[in-house]
Structure formats: C-alpha cells, structure tokens
Specification:
Layout: E1 2-5, H1 14-23, E2 29-35, H2 45-51, H3 53-56, E3 61-65, H4 70-82, E4 87-92, H5 97-100, H6 112-125, E5 129-135, H7 144-151, E6 159-162, H8 176-185, E7 190-193, H9 199-208, E8 214-217, H10 219-223, H11 227-231, H12 239-273, H13 281-289, H14 293-306
Parallel strand pairs: 1-2, 1-8, 2-3, 3-4, 4-5, 5-6, 6-7, 7-8
Helix pairs in contact: 1-12, 4-6, 7-8, 13-14
Bound molecules: flavin mononucleotide.
The site of flavin mononucleotide has 22 residues, from strand 2 and helix 10.
Length: 315
C-alpha cells in the first residue's frame, strides 16, 4: 500500500516538503497545497516557488489545482506538465468558507451542473493524468452513491476520498462505509484519507480494507515527522532529529521571509509538532500568543530542553 503525505496549506510548504523528504524519507508522494489559477493565466512568484520541480527535490510531489473553470484548470495543468509533472490533482473537497464562497472546492458538491461541466471540460481535453481529491458529499453521506456514479464516467487517475461531508468539516468519525462503497463502485485506483494518525491506525486500516492502493496522511504526519518511517517499521523521531528538522526549516523560513514571518510560519507547524512532547500546556500558550521573536525562540528552547518526548522509543 502506498502512503502519501497530503496537502496542508500553511504547513506542508515547499521548504517543509523538501526538508521532510530529506530528513524523514518514507512518504511515497507529497501532494502540494492547492494553487488557484486565475483567468489571467500566469503563475505568481509565490506559486512558482512552490511548484518549481527542483525546489521540491528529493520529494516526489504532485501539484494540486483548485478551480471551478475547466479552462483555467487546463491552462494550469498544461503549464505544470511543461515543467515535467505527469499528474495533477483536482481539489473538489476543500470545505473552508473562503473557498466555498467562491464556488470552488467542496462547494462543487452542491452545484451538480457546475461539477459535471468542470469534469466534462477537464477530461475531454487534458493531456496530463488528473487525480481527484474529494469528500463524500456536501451535507449527507448518502450523496456518495450519486457522486461515485458521476466519477465512473471519467478516466480519473486516482480518487483520494476524505470520508466526511463538507458540512462535517473535521468533526465526528469518518464514514468508512463510503470507502467500501467506492471500492465496490469505482474502477479507478483509490486512496483513503481521514483520521489515520499513527502507524497503528494505518496497519489497522490495512487489515480492515485489504487491497487498498494508498492512504493519505495529513495531520498525523504533521504531528509526527517520523510517521512514515514508523509505518515502515522504523523508530520514533529522536530529540536530536526533531531539533535538526525544526532548526533547518526555521532557518529556511527566516532567510526567505524574515524573522517575524518566519516565526509565524513556524507557529503553524508547532500547532502540530507539540504533540511530540509532553507537559507543554504552559509553553504552548506563550508560544502561540507571542508576537516577539525572542520570546518565541525562548519557548522553542524550553520545549527542546525541558519537555519530555511523548514517545521515548527512538530508532
Ligand atoms: C491546515 C490544513 C490545511 C489543509 N490544506 C489542504 C489543501 O491545500 N488541499 C487539500 O486538498 N486539503 C487540504 N487539507 C485537508 C487535508 O489534506 C486532509 O484531507 C485532512 O487533514 C484530513 O486528513 P487527516 O485526517 O490525515 O488530517 C488541509 C487540512 C488542514 C488541517
């Protein structure tokens, strides 16, 4: 079974992917956070930094496109193919209000005509393999059946299914029965996504759903940089490894964006990375609230020197 590191806007940046792939190899692929092409058909400097293939090495990275326009999607996919990408991923699952207000992401799951038009337009013309990342419906899990029937019409390279509706965001438990239905209904390769946080979760899933081609891990992998290694039988991250990973990324952010914005970016990651440590309640509050980079750096020092590792079973 393949194991992918999924896209997390603001967390799995190009710097994160590169450093993670070098220091904690094991993910078969990284999916990039979405880029959202506009009608002027030009990549922004920020997008180019994210998608330039050399910037992503040594990771195998797949770009993701968020769009409700087949024309904009196809322009973007062609540009990415010219850079050497052999697969692009269509996001029709993002439930965030800023995205759905524009009719993109999971909003397409409640706009059937727009969704059909988009998929018809993309699959009639695309010269690049297109995978799809989606949820099981807008408001009710029973919508999955109709959605899968629609997907059957297209040569989807791989369907990555987050087994919640858009309305559910991340609440409750994933409807894994919808994944069973997908396996029964669809012929394209399938990837399961949702609430697999540990190596044990992944092996339990594999036992329950034998023959599944791939799983995608996101929050669990951001919480535990060594997750892919552990899935492959290796050990937990040591304090030294976490420190080296942290310091390399922080240094890259600081040199790219300056001290203040470097700190802001690291805070996003610390929201997850603090799971590697225990007794972090006090330091977490100060770390997340402070706007002072010196105070933030002291918090980082405190975590690495005083907080016990949550899992003391390194390699
Ligand atoms: C902070 C954050 C940012 C995300 N950004 C994206 C994104 O850019 N594209 C996307 O398809 N999904 C995005 N997701 C959704 C994840 O890829 C994934 O589907 C979700 O976290 C569930 O998987 P998990 O239970 O393994 O975390 C994001 C999730 C989070 C928490």
């Amino acid at each position: 079974m393949n194991v992918y590191f999924g896209p997390m806007e603001g967390v799995t940046t190009v710097q994160f992917r590169r450093i993670h792939a070098a220091m904690f190899p094991g993910a078969d692929r990284y999916y990039m956070p979405f880029i959202s092409p506009t009608a002027d058909h030009r990549f922004t400097a920020r997008e180019l930094r994210e998608i330039t293939p050399e910037n992503n090495l040594p990771a195998r990275a797949v770009p993701q496109i968020l769009s409700k326009s087949a024309e904009d999607f196809l322009w973007c996919a062609a540009g990415l193919a010219d850079m050497g990408y052999d697969e692009v991923n269509l996001n029709i699952g993002c439930p965030s209000a800023t995205v759905t207000a524009k009719g993109k992401g999971s909003a397409l799951l409640r706009a059937w005509d727009s969704l059909e038009r988009l998929l018809d337009g993309i699959f009639a013309e695309t010269k690049t393999a297109v995978s799809v990342k989606t949820r099981i419906g807008w408001a009710d899990p029973s919508e999955a059946e109709r959605l899968f029937e629609l997907f059957l019409r297209y040569p989807i390279a791989e369907l990555i299914l987050h087994c919640r509706t858009a309305r559910e965001m991340y609440s409750g438990t994933p409807h894994t029965e919808a994944f069973v239905l997908a396996k029964e209904t669809l012929s394209c390769p399938l990837c399961y996504n949702g609430d697999l946080f540990t190596a044990e979760d992944v092996s339990a899933f594999e036992k329950d759903m034998p023959g599944t081609g791939a799983v995608m891990l996101c929050r669990g992998a951001a919480r535990d940089p060594a997750l892919f290694r552990r899935i492959r039988g290796g050990g937990a991250a040591s304090r030294e490894e976490l420190r080296a990973f942290h310091d390399t990324l922080y240094e890259d952010y600081r040199s790219a964006y300056g001290r203040l914005n470097g700190m802001r970016r690291m805070k996003e990651l610390w929201g997850y990375l603090l799971h590697c440590f225990e007794n972090t309640d006090d330091v977490r509050k100060t770390m997340m609230r402070t706007k002072d980079t010196d105070v933030f750096d002291e918090c980082v020092e405190r975590v690495f020197t005083h907080c016990p590792l949550a899992d003391e079973k390194p390699l």
